[in-house]
Amino acid sequence: MLDVRKLRLLRELSHRETIAAVAQALAYTPSAVSQQLAALEREAGVALLTRTGRRVTLTPAAVALVRHTERILAVLEQAGAELATTRAELTGTLRIGAFPTAVRTILSPALVALSSAHPRLELRVTELDPALAPDALRAETLDVALIQEYDYVPVPADPALHSEPLFEEIVYLAARSAEPLAAHRESAWIASTPGTLCHTMTVRACEAAGFTPRIRHHADDFGTVLALVAAGQGVALVPEFGTRDRPPGVTLGALPTRRRTHLAYRRGAGDHPAVRAARVALRESAERSPGR
């Protein structure tokens, strides 16, 4: 019979693409991952990996096996959720991941509600870029996470995860004067770290307006971004939740671009009592948030 733990390694390899990345994510050594995958090939009786130098790719048989693995892991999550409903009280640990503006505006009030309603549930929060959240959910270092997508940066569906809409924000052009986006083709720009969704959104929104932004500064905290705008260091695109501490001298121009936040968790885990409680608390907090 195929080993679920080995199947999980194969699933992660399909997402992370290198054995080293799988090892780092799941706290294995690379050699241990290689050995486990080799053992899975022997159990399966067919080749699962094609090795070219240091590169490893999945064979068609492995791709098919990964699809089955997603369903198997979802059923196991559902079984664990059903067992947890038999307990009289919510206990254990719930690990939640969120991006900085959501921690301040949505997550903090939700934590107060969860702690009050379930005092024996240990809550652990990790602040991280939404682009990293799906990997953390699959690796089981998070149980619930807030993930994002922008109009110009759609996020592909992940068969390992389920997500549900939570809230939507306007994206603003932050500048010293009120001008359309296309007027800033020669301006200096302030953007998030390359590789983040916010950085990609800035580049693609400008390209849609007919130019490539000349990015001078990189900052991930929107308070810092607005301070740089106020200091005349450039212009920036900032979502609604990032504009709440706007300094004097910064003008905000609403764009048709939107940022959408979804609540995500592993497929099959939605009815786990702790996950369900978090879903309710986060949704209620989002509904009460000013401007929602």
From TrEMBL:
<dbReference type="InterPro" id="IPR000847">
    <property type="entry name" value="LysR_HTH_N"/>
</dbReference>
<dbReference type="GO" id="GO:0003677">
    <property type="term" value="F:DNA binding"/>
</dbReference>
<keyword id="KW-0010">Activator</keyword>
<dbReference type="InterPro" id="IPR036390">
    <property type="entry name" value="WH_DNA-bd_sf"/>
</dbReference>
<keyword id="KW-0805">Transcription regulation</keyword>
<dbReference type="InterPro" id="IPR005119">
    <property type="entry name" value="LysR_subst-bd"/>
</dbReference>
<dbReference type="InterPro" id="IPR036388">
    <property type="entry name" value="WH-like_DNA-bd_sf"/>
</dbReference>
<protein>
    <submittedName>
        <fullName>LysR family transcriptional regulator</fullName>
    </submittedName>
</protein>
<dbReference type="GO" id="GO:0003700">
    <property type="term" value="F:DNA-binding transcription factor activity"/>
</dbReference>
<keyword id="KW-0804">Transcription</keyword>
<comment type="similarity">
    <text>Belongs to the LysR transcriptional regulatory family.</text>
</comment>
<feature type="domain" description="HTH lysR-type">
    <location>
        <begin position="2"/>
        <end position="59"/>
    </location>
</feature>
<dbReference type="GO" id="GO:0032993">
    <property type="term" value="C:protein-DNA complex"/>
</dbReference>
<dbReference type="Pfam" id="PF03466">
    <property type="entry name" value="LysR_substrate"/>
</dbReference>
<keyword id="KW-0238">DNA-binding</keyword>
<dbReference type="Pfam" id="PF00126">
    <property type="entry name" value="HTH_1"/>
</dbReference>
